[in-house]
Amino acid sequence: MFIDYLALMLLNVMAGYFLLACYVLAALDHADQTRWAPGFLMTGFVALAFGAVMSITWPLPGAYSAAYGGMSVLFGIIFLGAGLAMAKGWDLLPVAYYAFFAGWAAVLIGVRIIHLKLTLAPLLSGCGFILSGLGGVLAAPTLRYLKANRPFRAIAALVLVAAGVIWGTIAYAEYWHQMQQFGAWVPLLMRGAHGQP
Distance between CA 34 and CA 30 in Å, rounded? Predict the structure, then answer.
């Protein structure tokens, strides 16, 4: 039995994509971006911290630590960069350029997960990575050329919400499973106190 924190990471990603969808739909062209900074910074910090630990320690079997940990690091850096840019009044376009390349990596991982039938739900997980990646790939064109195009922004927000729903579905299912799987689990240091060998 191994213990991981993937559900926490995916719940954070879900919150980030819902936040980003609201931002794209309602505030992309507003003059005051500072009020959005805390949400992006919080999401980015959690994603970077746990993604970095996962990338270094590899708590998941096979290639999962690289896929989920690495993408969480990139997601975290993008959200931290966006939050900092919003707080300081900087241009978001450099962050979007970075997201473009990270997005293609997420699309590639999603395609490979589906192709290799990785995870318990390869189609769902693969689609989550692909939709997440499309959000990154389309960030720069949206900021540069399509900021005033409200229908396009609505479609982009729907893609982000779909990605968030997928990650939330997986995260909540994992939490449900963990409550059963670890209901009677006792940490190693406490086993003597509970009369367990």
Answer: 10
- Tokens representing 139 are 């960030």
Closest CA to 104 of 139, 153, 147: 139
How is residue 68 written in tokens? 């989920």
- Render pLDDT for 81-110 as a digit per residue (tens, 0 to 9): 999 999 999 999 999 999 999 999 999 999
Model confidence, pTM: 0.89
> Which domains are assigned to the chain?
6-179 (1.25.40.600)
User: Which pLDDT belongs to residue 1?
Assistant: 43
148-195 per-position pLDDT tens digit: 999 999 999 999 999 999 999 999 998 888 777 766 767 677 776 655
Q: How far is CA 104 from CA 61, 114, 136, 158, 164, in A?
A: 24, 16, 8, 19, 18
CA distance 57 to 138: 32
SS3 of 62-120: the string is CCHHHHHHHHHHHHHHHHHHHHHHHHHCCCCHHHHHHHHHHHHHHHHHHHHHHHHCCCC
